[in-house]
Amino acid sequence: MCEIDHFAESVAEYEARGLVTRRQFGVLVGAGVAMMLPGVANAQAVTERNVDIKTPDGTADSYFVHPAAGSAAGVLIWPDIFGLRPAMRNMAKRLAGSGYSVLVVNPFYRNGKPTATGATPIAEMLPYRKGMSAATDMSDAKTFIAWLDAQPQVNKNRKIGVQGYCMGGPMSFHTASAVPDRIGAVASFHGGGLVAMDPASPTSPHQLAAATKASFLIAIAENDDKQRPNDKTILKETFDKAKLMSEIEVYTAAHGWCPPDTTVYNEPAAEKAWARLLALYGKALA
User: Fold this and answer.
1) Which residue, 197, 198, 162, 156, is CA-closest to 177?
2) Do 276 and 247 form a contact (C-beta atoms < 8 A)?
3) N or C end of the chain, less CB within 10 A?
4) What pTM, to 2 d.p., does this model score?
5) Which of 48, 149, 33 is nearest to 92 (CA)?
6) How many of the other CB atoms lie within 10 Å of CB of 237?
7) How far apart are CA 217 and CA 197, in angstroms?
8) What is the pLDDT along the chain (286 residues), one digit of tens a residue?
9) Dihedrals phi, psi of 250, to nearest 5 degrees
10) Which of 266, 188, 252 is nearest to 223 (CA)?
């Protein structure tokens, strides 16, 4: 998961490179510019709606967007520490325009509906994580995947993809473990905690994920790699041993670089990660 000091270090490092200052970022957010994403060539028309999904622990407010006509492979998105918000909705809408039926959930639904952006202090978000665990991730995953499969806009003959950002990385691994027969592709972007402190633990997210049949895309932030330089090797060796397709790369970007509303958003690196995501889904969810 995101750590307060770690994320602050990411912002400081990003500013030191002269890419954007806090004041400039504030102006961009105020103008709505930070929410904008590059357009999609030949994007499909999409239909969107807010949905409430009943789970064993309550009701998860969510967002569902899909191509306006026909059915498509389903995708579940686990947001980062800042939760379900306009930036995540825009990312889901962009993916739907590329031909997928996409569900983004509020992972904090047990504790409320936070109103946040990628610039919200992480300390304000941590209380919403109370009660969340690998067990709740897996329980929720089963419910959300079943909900997707019940929608006529989801093609049940195609595997489902799952992607996560920050804390959503291990949640995506847990999803693959919870519903191994349905998940065909897993993507983690600047995910935290993919490998437990004891990598050999059978409950480590990467060990659980390696027992599936999915293909993996793991995009690691350079400062995450500096803190835990062995993780990429452990991930690669584990997935190779399990004979699973995996693309594991350290990106020249700070933790949190993908969503367009964070203070460390890096468009070139985010676009590269997005292109690799589409390549993964194009192959694994065909």
Assistant:
1) 162
2) yes
3) C
4) 0.90
5) 48
6) 11
7) 21
8) 455 445 555 555 555 554 444 434 444 444 444 456 777 777 899 999 999 999 999 999 999 999 999 999 999 999 999 999 999 999 999 999 999 999 999 999 999 999 999 999 999 999 999 999 999 999 999 999 999 999 999 999 999 999 999 999 999 999 999 999 999 999 999 999 999 999 999 999 999 999 999 999 999 999 999 999 999 999 999 999 999 999 999 999 999 999 999 999 999 999 999 999 999 999 999 9
9) -90, 125
10) 252
DSSP 65-125: EEESSS-B-EEEEE--TT-S-HHHHHHHHHHHHTT-EEEEE-TTTTT------TTS-HHHH
256 residue type, one letter: G
* Nearest alpha-carbon partner for 146 in 103, 83, 90, 210: 103
**Amino acid (one-letter) located at 282:** G
Amino acid 57 reads D
For CA atoms 229, 233, 238, 244, the dihedral sign is positive
